[in-house]
Amino acid sequence: MLQPVARLAELVRALVQRHYLDLSAARVWPLCVLVVYGIVAGFIYNPGMDHPWDKLQHLVFFGLLTLSIHAFFCCRLRISAGIAVGLGLTAELVQALVPHREFSLGDIAANMLGVTLVVAAIMLLRLEVHAALSGSPSSGEQDDETADAAQAQPAASSSGRSRPS
User: What is the full DSSP assignment across 21-88?
Assistant: First the structure.
């Protein structure tokens, strides 16, 4: 019994190494959360029926979808967001063609808001990490000496005097 399992594990390991797939927890975790969330939400809420949390469900699902695509496939953020928005638009267009389902601009807006919030959070996190790694304070954290020097510099250049070197 262990022989086929060991062969399968070796095959997966070889494929991962050959195609440079990173199956670390940081890459797989958002996808797992998305799947669990989808299953739980599917059991709690009856699909196709309007409920008070419908737009919030769309927002959370498409936010998790964007994060999952970005983390798992290691692609650019704009590509992840574009894929998620495309999937949301396609899902709503398909619902227009399916009986007992309906096309909703509100759902599209909630989908795009979920994507936008995740993209904004990732960009903000990247800015903070970049500022921390570069050692430069963010714009609101300048010390008094740096702020005074920045204010005095334009005054000195406008008076026509050259600065001593």
Answer: ----HHHHHHHHHHHHHHHHHHHHS-TTS--TTHHHHHHHHHHHHHHHHHHHH---HHHHHHHHHHHH
Q: Which residues contact 95 (CB under 8 A, 6 or more apart)?
A: 101, 102, 103, 104
Distance from C-alpha of 141 to C-alpha of 14, rounded to nearest angstrom: 49
- Extract the tokens encoding 150: 């920045």
Tens of pLDDT, residues 125-135: 999 988 888 88
| Residue 118 tokens, joined | 């995740």
CB distance 115 to 91 below 8 Å: no
**Cα gap 70→121, rounded to integer Å:** 13
The H or E element containing residue 92 is helix 77-97
Phi-psi region of 67 (alpha: psi -120 to 50; beta: other; left: phi over 0): alpha
pLDDT in tens, 50-106: 677 888 889 999 999 999 999 888 778 999 999 999 999 999 999 899 888 888 899
* 27 burial type by CB count under 10 A (0-12 exposed, 13-18 middle, 19+ buried): middle
